[in-house]
Description:
Elements: H1 11-30, H2 32-35, H3 42-63, H4 81-87, H5 103-122
Amino acid sequence: MNPFVGFFDNCMFTIVIILTTLVQIATVEFGAKFTKTFKLNMDQNLICIGFGLGSLIWGFILKQTPLDWWKLSCLDFDCSEEELAEHNEVDEDGERKNPLRSETFKKSMAKSASQKKREAEIM
């Protein structure tokens, strides 16, 4: 259950990560007036690294929890049981399906748009 197994097997991924990190460091250290940044001391750099590692750990913890724990994650507080069930559907790989592509979501968005149009007409 090691999440880092095969982490650096993809050469392109490794290059993108290294280049992104170097560009971010150069932007902060040498950007000055152009990017409106200030150089960071060692403590500030360590705090930034801590935030980054913390978000990775939090993401890993969330991925290990069952989807049923997040039933209240429906974006619309007035969502029906059908919308909630569709929101929490998983595909054959165990990954949650994108709720923004569901038919129920599209219908509710169309309904919201028509409601907004009627409200605008009333005013």
